[in-house]
Amino acid sequence: MINDDLPNGDEESLHETWPSESDVGNHVAPPHCRSTHLLDVPAHRNGTLGRTISQLNAAVQLNHIDESRYYPSTLRPGRLMPLDLGLEGAHVLVTGASGGIGLEITRLFAEQGAKVTAHYNTNSATLQPLISQYGSQHIRALRADLTDEAAVSKLFDEATSSSFGAVHILILNHAISAKIREPVWKISLERWKHTIDVNLTSSFIVVKEYLKRLEMTPDVIKDRASVVIIGSTAGQFGEAGNADYAASKSALMYGLTLSLKNEIVKIAPKARVNSIGPGWTVTPRTEPSIKNPDIVYTALATTPLKKVAMPQDIAPQVALLASQRVSGHITGQVLMIQGGMEGRLLNKQAEL
Fold first, then answer.
1. What is the dihedral of CA 279, 9, 225, 78, to 10 degrees?
2. What residue spans carry the region label Disordered (predicted)?
3. 26 near 129, Cβ under 8 Å?
4. 266-303: b (≥16 Cβ within 10 Å) or e
5. Crossing angle of helices 202-214 and 149-161, rounded to 10°
6. 272 or 13: whose pLDDT is higher?
7. Could you read off the pLDDT of 138-195 as tens digits, one per residue?
């Protein structure tokens, strides 16, 4: 079962969410995600590092407290995206829809008038507010173990047998990451296989089923076909102690994306496949890590914007790439959403 060991049964990409396995959140940033959680600067930390931590405090505070300072009013939670993406009536299947980023993706597609099948593995509680807000005519929650081919086939059967019809757009957002960070020589074969199965093999199973069904649909469906894969900066830069997760994300963002974009056009000439690679993103599950100045410093030391993302930074880019109207000539691309991050901070000053 995907993420069966998670407290809330949620599944979605981690995107640098040390050290948790997944993100769980509501369709708007919850109150505890807006409170002030500044980083304590120990007395022995001074000079450049102390000033850097102080700057990160300001960045973290900005992310948590005052969204209005860096989001246009029309992009804040609960507001419509100020652009018609031509998604009205499109059927969008979002995997791992019950987590922080998945919820925001689901919300934004619903706002655009799409019909969203919101996949979850064990717990749909976080999806219920969205279903209440937008109605069952726009959002439907369905459960499935994505590592099971029969379960995935059933998921598509249930999704397409409703008034939603055939799936136009597929968003592959589910993923897990181990709670314990270990170097490769300590990672068990069981852990490696589990991560690859849940993150990579399940994505293959889902996209395979999507393409099999897409091939049999009329041109009106094929002309709106799009796949957006959620990767991670771990897939771009690697991640020490998390090689299994990083390897799965690299495979999705590059090997699978670049192969699929050449194959999907054989059955749907206008269809496109793209990926995005989020970096560190604020969600309720990442909240404890933000209190650790070492983690935040390591995360943002090579990031020019000196702040972490919110789910509202990620979801609009997913919707834009999925839209045939605005991104009809974009395919095979990996869009990194990480504040300009240039790589990993491997060695701190004290370690040299």
1. -70
2. 1-30
3. yes
4. eebebbbbbbbbbbbbbbbbbbebbeebebbbbbbbeb
5. 40
6. 272
7. 999 999 999 999 999 999 999 999 899 999 999 999 999 898 999 999 999 999 999 9
Residues 12 and 20: beta-carbon distance below 8 Å: no
Question: How far, in whole angstroms, is CA 146 from its chain's centroid?
Answer: 16
Residue listed under structure tokens 């959680």 = 37
Sign of CA pseudo-dihedral 248, 252, 254, 255: positive
Q: Which two structure tokens, joined as six digits, stand for 307?
A: 């702040």
> Hey, is 38 helix, strand or coil?
coil
| AA identity, residue 198 | V
Query: Dihedral (C-alpha) 170, 307, 281, 186: value to the nearest 10 degrees?
Result: 120
* Joined tokens for residue 270: 């206008």
- Edge to edge, the sheet with strand 115-120 lists 139-143, 115-120, 91-94, 169-172, 226-230, 272-278, 334-337
